[in-house]
Amino acid sequence: MTDSQHIVSSYDRDLEGVQALIIKMGGLVETAILDCAKALELRDEELAERVRKGDKAIDALMEQINEETAFVIARRAPAASDLRVVLSVMKMSNNLERIGDYAKNIAKRAGVLLQMTPIDGASGAVRRMAREVELMLKDALDAYIQRDPELAQVVSNRDKEVDQMYNALFREFLTFMMEDPRNITACMHLHFIAKNIERMGDHVTALAEQVIYVSTGKMPEEDRPKADSTPYEIHGDPMAGKD
Amino acid sequence: MYDNPNLERKVAQQDTKISARNVQVFYGDTHAIKDVNIEIPSRTVTAFIGPSGCGKSTFLRCLNRMNDTIDICRVEGDIDLDGENIYDKRVDPVQLRAKVGMVFQKPNPFPKSIYDNIAYGPRIHGLAKNKADLDEIVEKALRRGAIWNEVKDRLHAPGTGLSGGQQQRLCIARAVATEPEVLLMDEPCSALDPIATSQVEELIDELRDQYSVVIVTHSMQQAARVSQKTAFFHLGNLVEYGDTGQIFTNPQDSRTESYITGRIG
């Protein structure tokens, strides 16, 4: 993006305003990610409730961003880098809204898990995974503010680590469930939580790709590293040893 | 994203209609056009954009030798139309201008009837054998100018009595009456209201089936709407020339970017 300002200064204010909303929304989503995982680990129902209620504010910001971007398109007919800002803001607000929904869903499951015997080490691992995603989001937003496509690319590559953490948890939960069927309910919830965080990572990656688009005008190549191998996993194969 | 062929409205064929090489234009001591090279494809709308005084109109006027009428103007370099240099001594500028028509910023109908406005060019170029022939040419041109239905009952009323938008479409009809191959338009919509502008833009899009259209416009949105290729001029230089979709989503030169986004360059 060119650093110089528009001749019509209210145009700059419109664009800055809508981008400030994205950053604000990003801040709320970062907090929601950390808090839902913390509520899970510390078995803190109050905090979980706060995350569930806090999602409304995130949704409201998305609505506001939608309205303001529509306004900018209608009034300014943005072109070139301005057009890319408007397009990326719309997509990024969608990504953030989805991440917020996942955090809310985790907070709901955390409320249910409170009533069950904790699974050893699981919530700590989930929290580490959530922290990694939150750090990625923070860096992606920093990259957005600084228009730094290289940092955004680094963030995008880091999603692989989240996928690997998810793979490890997936196997761990399977093992717990095979050991003792009474673990199944809790592990199913924990598995959905881990899957939610893994999906959050994908949305952060999509957001980082928007940063690359807004700064360079090009979308990154599609073949980024993916490490979610669970679609191909076979554990406790019922056919095993039958012949 | 602009690589997607479906995004860009289909350009029927990409052979070059006009090719300009190392074109320089001087008005006395002023160097108005500096070493411009451009290939304008046939059956395509090409938009020239740029700030006032950047040379886009000057360059447009070079394409049918309108600058010949200005004494202090000197044109260097080569401009080929279908591979033939239009500045060759054997080329008759009047014949050239029948092939390369022009529409100006302000509608300028002749102070004659609507019919005679259209018939004037075909008459002096001997395109009609008889009155019936000429009637047909006039009707066809007025239809192509998207104004036939509005004027068919008053063909012998003066052209100057029409509204501004109608006058401009009359001038476009007049320009296409001689069956030109290229149509040059110098800000054809700047004096028109949005409805008349849309009518002219629709017309430009239809004309693209048969002609190369080159349009100079100060409206970025108009350039984005009507053209397939866009050229950005700045201080007499051709800064950037490319597919319109690319110029308006991801211009490569920072001067283009500043201009089309309305920044102080």
Written account of the structure:
The complex is a heterodimer of chains A (243) and B (265). Chain A is mainly alpha-helical. Chain A is built from 6 helices and no strands. Chain B has a domain at 16-106 and 179-260: P-loop containing nucleotide triphosphate hydrolases (Rossmann fold, 3-Layer(aba) Sandwich), CATH 3.40.50. Helix content of chain B is 34%, strand content 25%. Chain B is built from 10 helices and 10 strands. Chain B has helices at residues 56-62, 93-99, 114-124, 131-144, 148-151, 164-177, 194-207, 220-226, 244-249, 254-260, and strands at 16-27, 30-41, 45-49, 73-81, 84-85, 100-103, 182-186, 212-216, 229-234, 237-243. In chain B, a hairpin with a 2-residue loop joins strand 9 (229-234) and strand 10 (237-243). In chain B, helix 6 packs parallel to helix 7. Chain B starts with 15 loop residues before the first strand and ends in a 5-residue tail after the last helix. The mean pLDDT of chain B is 90. The A-B interface holds A 2, 4-8, 11, 77-84, 217-219 and B 1, 220-221, 224, 248-251, 254, 256-258, 260-265.
Feature tags:
heterodimer, A: mainly alpha, Methane Monooxygenase Hydroxylase, Chain G, domain 1, 6 helices, elongated, B: alpha/beta, Rossmann fold, 4-stranded antiparallel β-sheet, 25% strand
Spell out the blueprint of helices and strands.
The complex is a heterodimer of chains A (243) and B (265).
Chain A (H helix, E strand, L loop, with lengths): L8 H34 L2 H32 L3 H34 L8 H25 L2 H31 L4 H33 L27
Chain B lengths: L15 E12 L2 E12 L3 E5 L6 H7 L10 E9 L2 E2 L7 H7 E4 L10 H11 L6 H14 L3 H4 L12 H14 L4 E5 L7 H14 L4 E5 L3 H7 L2 E6 L2 E7 H6 L4 H7 L5
Parallel strand pairs in B: 3-8, 3-9, 6-7, 7-8
Antiparallel strand pairs in B: 1-2, 1-4, 4-5, 9-10
Helix pairs in contact in B: 3-4, 3-6, 4-6, 6-7
